[in-house]
């Protein structure tokens, strides 16, 4: 088994448009949720979301090219550029056939779907819509655009597993390197679904919080939680085989050591209430890492702020960890970012990695009312300066998809 380390990070989020600002916001417990500005919310039931602020794609991407990309791909490419620069990899000195991309989106270019559908309807002819419609909407195009931008010729793919998508992307990329198929992988996810159609679709199924108070909207594990808050953005992680990283003197953030993935195979949106299959996922990730439940210090939970998810995830953690669950710190950073859907796992993975490197456990902010069914140490309201060595990042998606990645504080070989 080859060791896999993280050597580059990039992010664009509701609480920061780069890694440094994201991390400073996490440490400060900043809430990125506010009134929706992407469209008119007059008379709408849902008024809050975690929007990316002050984003101009033309600051990073050629104007002509940016116009041919949906917002979801713009986020992907901007985060990828930051991560590649952060890694310090000289692409002229690596075998690009051994450098792959696993990058996800749960939904894809929904903003383009919405706008071009309206255009086609108004024109009375759908053959009059943009010739870039298809490449702008398909969920694999962010991965493709990233590979094109950097000339990466290794495996390029896009697991689409709803809200577990980018956690699966990290895990799949990890195994490509560990098992000898690649030396470098760029992985992560992006999402841009704060549109009338995107919000409307989740609102119609009563999945979103109707709160008008931004401090009481995304409140994971709180007894008053009533739905998730949509977020948007992207996150990218550069993975590298350890000897390559050491040979070029790369900075190393942390190590990826395990990955698990299961499917509830039960319901299209609801998790299994006893948490048994999610628990099996967590156990599989730890088994893959060769670690015991007692080795884990922290879990970055899926923690969506929906009544069912947070209760079922608590059960899954307790089932998987047994008595060791009592000493775990378990927080949900969706209280800060909202739920970034297919990008959630990537951004939460980045936050987890930075926590390992710097010895900081992020808080579940805006927590007020204790729920007896969510009886874990959720690190309420205040983050903790604490040395942690092993952390788990969980993602659970519609369709019953469960994914978990184990990160470990880097220690020299």
What would you say about this model in short?
The chain contains 13 helices and 14 strands. It is of the alpha/beta class. It has two domains: 4-247, Peroxisomal Thiolase, Chain A, domain 1 (3-Layer(aba) Sandwich); 258-408, Thiolase/Chalcone synthase (Peroxisomal Thiolase, Chain A, domain 1).
Can you describe what's shown?
- The chain is α/β, with parallel strands linked by helices and 413 residues long.
- The chain has 2 domains: 4-247, Peroxisomal Thiolase, Chain A, domain 1 (3-Layer(aba) Sandwich); 258-408, Peroxisomal Thiolase, Chain A, domain 1 (3-Layer(aba) Sandwich), CATH 3.40.47.
- The chain has 13 helices and 14 strands.
- It has helices at 19-28, 63-67, 71-87, 110-123, 133-137, 141-150, 165-178, 196-204, 242-247, 276-289, 307-321, 334-337, 344-358; strands spanning 4-12, 34-35, 48-49, 99-104, 156-157, 184-191, 233-241, 254-263, 298-300, 329-331, 360-361, 384-385, 390-397, 401-408.
- It has a 10-stranded mixed sheet with strand order 5-4-6-7-1-8-14-13-9-10, with helices on both faces. Strands 2-3 form a two-stranded antiparallel ribbon. Strands 11-12 form a two-stranded antiparallel sheet.
- Helix 3 (71-87) runs parallel beside helix 6 (141-150) and helix 7 crosses helix 13.
- The longest helix is centred in the first third of the chain and has 17 residues, at 71-87.
- It is globular and about 60 Å long.
- The model has no long low-confidence stretch (mean pLDDT 97).
Radius of gyration: 20 Å
Shape: globular
CATH architectural group of the largest domain: 3-Layer(aba) Sandwich
**CATH topology assignment of the largest domain:** Peroxisomal Thiolase, Chain A, domain 1
Q: How far apart are the first and last residues' alpha carbons, in Å?
A: 14 Å
Strand content: 15-25%
Element pattern in H and E: EHEEHHEHHHEHEHEHEHEHEHHEEEE
GO molecular function: 3-oxoacyl-[acyl-carrier-protein] synthase activity
Keywords: Acyltransferase, Fatty acid biosynthesis, Fatty acid metabolism, Lipid biosynthesis, Lipid metabolism, Transferase
Catalytic activity: (9Z)-hexadecenoyl-[ACP] + malonyl-[ACP] + H(+) = 3-oxo-(11Z)-octadecenoyl-[ACP] + holo-[ACP] + CO2; a fatty acyl-[ACP] + malonyl-[ACP] + H(+) = a 3-oxoacyl-[ACP] + holo-[ACP] + CO2
Organism: Catonella massiliensis
């Amino acid at each position: 088994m080859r060791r896999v380390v993280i050597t580059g990070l990039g992010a664009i989020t509701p609480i920061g448009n780069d890694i440094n600002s994201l991390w400073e916001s996490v440490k400060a417990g900043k809430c990125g949720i506010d009134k929706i500005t992407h469209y008119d919310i007059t008379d709408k039931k849902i008024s809050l979301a975690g929007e990316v602020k002050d984003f101009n794609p033309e600051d990073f991407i050629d104007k002509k090219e940016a116009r041919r990309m949906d917002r979801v791909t713009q986020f992907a490419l901007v985060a990828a550029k930051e991560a590649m620069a952060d890694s310090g990899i000289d692409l002229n000195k690596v075998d690009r056939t051994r450098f792959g991309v696993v990058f996800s989106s749960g939904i894809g270019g929904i903003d383009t779907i919405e706008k071009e559908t309206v255009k086609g309807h108004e024109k009375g002819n759908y053959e009059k819509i943009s010739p870039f419609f298809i490449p702008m909407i398909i969920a694999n195009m962010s991965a493709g655009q990233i590979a094109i931008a950097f000339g990466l010729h290794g495996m390029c793919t896009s697991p689409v597993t709803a809200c577990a998508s980018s956690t699966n992307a990290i895990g799949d990329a990890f195994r490509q390197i560990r098992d000898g198929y690649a030396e470098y992988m760029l992985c992560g996810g992006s999402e841009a679904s704060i549109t009338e159609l995107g919000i409307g679709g989740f609102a119609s199924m009563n999945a979103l919080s109707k709160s008008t108070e931004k401090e009481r909207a995304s409140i994971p594990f709180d007894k008053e939680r009533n739905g998730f808050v949509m977020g948007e953005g992207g996150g990218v992680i550069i993975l590298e085989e350890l000897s390559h990283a050491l040979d070029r003197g790369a900075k190393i953030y942390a190590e990826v050591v395990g990955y698990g993935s299961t499917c509830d195979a039960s319901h299209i949106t609801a998790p299994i209430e006893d948490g048994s299959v999610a628990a099996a996922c967590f156990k599989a990730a730890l088994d893959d890492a060769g670690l015991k439940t007692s080795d884990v210090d922290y879990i970055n939970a899926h923690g969506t702020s929906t009544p069912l998810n947070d209760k079922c995830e608590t059960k899954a953690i307790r089932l998987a960890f047994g008595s060791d669950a009592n000493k775990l710190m378990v927080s949900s950073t969706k209280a800060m970012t909202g739920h970034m859907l297919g990008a959630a796992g990537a951004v939460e993975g980045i936050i987890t990695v930075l926590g390992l490197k710097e010895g900081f456990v992020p808080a579940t902010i805006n927590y007020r009312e204790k729920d007896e069914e969510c009886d874990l140490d959720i690190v309420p309201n205040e983050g903790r300066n604490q040395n942690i060595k092993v952390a788990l990042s969980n993602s659970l998606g519609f369709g019953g998809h469960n994914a978990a990645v184990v990160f470990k504080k880097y220690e020299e070989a």
